Amino acid sequence: MAAQPKPLAFEHPSYLHDPGGIWSWITTVDHKRVAVLYGITALFMMAVGGMEAMLIRAQLMVPGNHLLSAAAYNEMFTMHGTTMIFLVLMPLELGFFANFFIPLQIGARDVAFPRLNALSYWVFLGGTIFLHLGLLRSIYGLPDAGWFGYANLTERMYTPGINVDCWDIGLLILGVSTLLSGLNFFVTIVNLRAPGMTFMRMPMFIWAMLVTTILILLAFPALTVGLIFLFADRFLDTHFYRVSAGATPILWQHLFWIFGHPEVYIMALPAFGMISEVIPPFSRKPLFGYPMMAYSLVLIAFLSYGVWGHHMFATGMGPIADATFSITSMLIAIPTGVKIFSWLATVWGGRLRFTTSMLFAVGFLVEFTIGGLSGIMHASPPVDLQQTDSYIIVAHFHYVLFGGVLMGILAAFYYWWPKITGRFLSEKLGKAQFWITAWAFNATFFPMHFVGVLGMPRRIYTYAPHMGWDFWNYFESVNAFILGFAFLLFFINIIWSAMDGEIASSDPWDARTLEWSIPSPPPAFNFAAVPMVTSRDAFWVRKYGTVGTHGVAPAIAGGAAAAPIGAHAEVEEHIHMPAPSLYPLIFALGVFLMGVGCLVWTRLIIMGGAVTVMSVIGMVFEYPSFGKFDPAMIAESTLGLDHRKVGMWAFLGSECVFFASLISTYMVYKDRNLGGFDAMILNIPLTSVSTFVLLTSSLTMVLALAAVQRDDRKWSVFWLASTVLFGCIFLGGQAFEFTDFVMQGLKIQTNLFGQTFYTLVGFHGIHVLIGVCWLIVLTIAVARGKIGKDRSLAVEIGGLYWHFVDIVWVIIFTLIYLMRTVKHA
Amino acid sequence: MRSVSRLNKFVGSGLLAAMVFAFFGCGNFNAPMQTFASGSDLAKWITSLYIQITIWDSIVLAIVLIVLALAIFVFSTREGDPTEPHEHESDLMLELAWTIAPALILMFITIPTVRTIMRTQPSKWPANAITVQVHAHQWWWEFDYPGLHIATGDEVHIPINRVIHFELYSDDIIHSFWIPALGGKRDVIPGQVNQITLIPSVTGEFYGQCAEFCGLSHANMRFRMVVDTADGFKQWVAAQQAPPVEPQEAAAKNGEKIFKNAPCAICHTVRGISGFSKQYDYGFRGPDLTHFGSRGTLAGSIFDNNPKNLAMWIQDPEKVKPGARMPTLGLRGTDLHDLVAYLESLK
Question: Residue B309: which residues within 8 A CB-CB, separation 6 or more?
Fold first, then answer.
């Protein structure tokens, strides 16, 4: 390790120091503290998921084992997958590292929406608990249908217990949390970068997170829709995945994998970013091929939406679809190859330092390459037919997610831990952990390629002897326990470091990015003075003068110039940090209660809903800045736009995918309807009138905003009230339409038309209802003089939402009402 | 830090050696479900493609590992060296090269892939093809030969060198039909009829298994496929088409009575004795037992078919196959013995 500069004394205590005790953690909105909460939860879940893996391996150690029952084994592999993906990898990457380091790397004081960040955490915690809620009823209460829970096995007819209920609702809750985090980080990166930090000057980790958040915004709604359908099937007796009504369980696979493949990159891209942060400082070189690295991230993300079918080659999509999905999947190899080779080129010619972090980064390069290459095999449909659902797939995704993503996370742990806690993790223990992991990981998962080639299907709790699988399974299990031991070392290292680790300076690795310019651990406000960025690798340039080091007089290792930016500068006087808030926790509690209500007592849903709504209202009016233009904030923002507006745009982008999924389902199921009611029941004249009314409300909304902006209270109220009135007329028309249909006998359970129509139009109606309530609040606030010109932003954002809902209706009206062609299956 | 490079080389060459072993070692020991298979035209096409892609993959992996090992070997020695590394941030030719070269390799993979897709998913098959309707149930396989009026469970016979056309049906949830030796798997999806067409080219007995997770006893949903010679298949068909054997021994005769009177007959067909209505109901269909005694295995092909195993199975199906739909009838002693004797007599 480089010689360290003397730690600088700071007057300002670190973010960890707070006399408020546990309460200050519960009400915290500081991104660093929220990150620590995420980290602790995710590490705990990592231990749980690891134990589940150990049980799986213990069961498979010998053929015909009776250690676990079939039911217990099915729960273990379901929960191992669900836990590791949703409760370990994603929260560690997004909740922990991205949360902590996005603001630090872009020179910001916090994320764009600090309370929303805390809210994401508490909702995540609620979802985590909810997934395990079945344990309260029985030890066989855990979800047991696999982490991708294929319909129609998940129908109540085939899985009657509470297991899949907890899985369905738990994932819905976790989806809310992830979506809000994604939204928050997206706005943070887009709008909160320090002055001078253009897109092409962002650290590669920030690039990776930017692309990841876009993936989250555009992928998660598809899962949400799939889970809502499953919920309806299980609780309302609809037929979204039931063959008896003409539906097909394949719908779930499409919706799930449209989410599921981007999800792979939601996990992989942050790890790519972490590796891109770790390799340069330990090679003492800038990242090779920065522009290509950034573009390849974007290209991977773009392609990832066109490849979901490669999870479904065995379903018989037909040769054309197979060939198309095969080619798009293989194309992903090109940008991924660019990344691998660019990392190699970064290492090449460097002055390498093999810290534990660098070792894990090298491990990542090897293991991820193996995982990526076996992925090319599965992208070839004929070969995939011999491989899918066999152990070679298990080997593949463990090489990608463990050898790739988790090794990337471990590299990040050893690299960033000193910044987070101000103490080093033990390098000695770390290196021991790395070498044991490197051996045991490969010894556990590489032989899975062999048993896969030898034809062992995945997800079987028992197998026959003499299939050629016995030796390798035994070997894998033994090594899996060794792998478990390596993680025990990791946990020991963390606890030891937290209590007695070596104190770290602000820039212990002689690194390149802004987070190393501030003390370790950072003060609550991060940067005493907002840094000015003039190039890539901003901190390095500040220390040494150029991006590379070529031609510069050799600097003293560690850099005498490495004084933290702002350390000697006066702390800016007007640093305004958001106040702590309890509402995020209350919101999460409300959501959790609603979930529990679905399982046990319907009235609890209403109570939980009330708690949720009240916490939202409380949150809105908690800060005096509600709806206010903040010229300082807009001036500091990168786009020159208010965060809240950018956030609303991002949210609406996500909503597009939500409605697109619902509309596609309607269109697909329209022709599979088994008769009975169909689109001919729709009352076009009536709906035309209400459509006209809704469109008019967009006009009045525009007039309302104009009136508010010129501070004309009378007309503001008039136009806002008109908008509310038109919205209500529309809702009234819809209520009439629905009642009329129900009276005629068309219920949500009746047939495919009924269920898709009611969900699509119903969810749109709920959006209108929320909009109307929102507008009523605005109208009252305007009437009472609370909202004037200076707070017109509140009206503007409400207007954005309202216009979006209107546009969606135009699409629905055109596709569902005007273009109703009826064909019976 | 030289140990790093050594270890990396060691690991690298070890991995390659292991792959080679996986390739060529398979034939040498008993691995009846291995996927580098050549039991049919379909399997041969897939294996050929499989090997091509594996070779390309190995080449790329070797390049990456060698470059990485070299980089580590050469540049880890610089620790403590005061000279600064060169500022080498981009190189257009190099970057173009590692974009174009993988694209070219992908062409060598994609073209045979698309050709194999078109070959292996024919939309037509000859009129004289033998059609086998495969019905997947939780958790056993039923095989119907619509042209031959035969129904079996757990065991399917096909002749060599004839076009076999499998039609895949599911009455409950999604399963996946897989006989590795004869080619790739295909999901069995309710509400949709999938197909596999192939020409078996080797006689013998092959193992198959459900490959899509289908609930509690997914692991216990296996079957066997016997590829016969043309004559052997003809004999088998004739035997299967024959009416059930009249029980001769006293025990077997008594067993037939028990079979008729116990709930067995509700779900199980023995032609001329009992019949399950063709209208499939969820969970209530058991295998056709007309020629049960001729089969090699029972209960989703998880046990060899012998009187001891059959008695164990009938006594407590749930115990040996979790979630099994067959109820425990509480048969003991002579009743059990006679029923077993009857069933085993149905050759």
Answer: B298, B299, B303
- Percent of chain A clearing pLDDT 90 (strictly above): 72
Interface touch B211/A145, C-beta < 8 Å: no
pLDDT at A400 over 90: yes
With contacts defined as CB-CB under 8 Å, which chain A residues touch B94? 345
Q: Which residues of B touch A461 (CB under 8 A)?
A: 219
**What residues of chain A lie within 8 A of the CB of B109, using their CB?**
330, 376, 380
Provide the CATH number for the domain around residue B153: 2.60.40.420
Give the gap in angstroms from C-alpha A308 to the nearest C-alpha of chain B: 17
Together in a domain, B6 and B102: yes
pLDDT confidence of residue A240: 94
Shortest CB distance from A333 goes to which of B8, B102, B217? Answer: B102
- Residue A351 to residue B71, Cβ atoms within 8 A: no
Q: Which of A38-47, A282-291, A507-516, A616-625 has the highest mean pLDDT?
A: A38-47
Altogether, the residues listed in chain B come to a count of 347
Q: What is the pLDDT of residue B3?
A: 43
Under an 8 A CB cutoff, do A250 and B192 touch? yes
CB atoms within 10 A of CB B59: 12
Contact B113 A390 (CB under 8 A): no
CB contact under 8 A, A158 and B215: yes
A678 - beta bridge partners? none
What was the ipTM of the complex prediction? 0.90
Instruction: Tell me how many domains chain A contains.
Output: 2
Beta strands in chain B (DSSP E): 130-137, 140-145, 150-153, 155-159, 164-170, 175-177, 186-188, 194-198, 204-209, 222-228, 297-298, 303-304
Residue with tokens 């009234």: A732
Of A478, A500, A522, which one is at a domain's C-terminal end? A500
Q: What is the pLDDT of residue B7?
A: 47
pLDDT score recorded for residue B22? 55
CATH number of the domain that residue A32 is part of: 1.20.210.10
Question: Given an 8 Å threshold on Cβ–Cβ distance, is B117 in contact with A157?
Answer: no
Residues of chain B contacting A289 with CB distance shorter than 8 Å: 89-91, 95
pLDDT tops 80 at residue A1: no
Q: Is residue B125 one of the residues assigned to a domain?
A: no
Count CB-CB contacts under 10 A for residue B260. 13
Span A171-213, pLDDT tens digits: 999 999 999 999 999 999 999 999 889 999 999 999 999 999 9
Contact between B8 and A366 using a beta-carbon 8 Å cutoff: yes
Q: Which two tokens stand for residue A447?
A: 């032989």
- Average pLDDT on A16-31 reads 85
> Residue A375 domain-assigned?
yes
Provide DSSP, A217-259.
HHHHHHHHHHHHHHHIIIII---TT-GGGT--THHHHHHHHHH
Count chain A–chain B contacts defined by CB atoms under 8 A: 319
Q: How many domains does one find in chain B?
A: 3
Q: Using the beta-carbon criterion (under 8 Å), do B50 and A386 form an inter-chain contact?
A: yes
Domain of A755 in residue numbering reads as 666-818
- In chain B, residues with a C-beta closer than 8 Å to the C-beta of A549 are 84-85, 87
Q: Are B183 and B277 in a shared domain?
A: no
Q: Is residue A416 part of a domain?
A: yes
* Shortest distance, CA A617 to any CA of chain B (angstroms): 44
Q: What are phi and psi of B175, to 5 degrees?
A: -125, 180
Please tell me whether residues B234 and B262 are part of one structural domain. no
Asked, for residue A460, whether it belongs to a domain, the answer is yes
Are both B23 and B103 inside the same structural domain?
A: yes
Domain boundary among A500, A520, A543: A500
Per the structure, the complete domain to which residue B16 belongs is given by: 2-78+90-120
SS3 content of chain B, % helix, strand, coil (to 5): 45, 20, 35
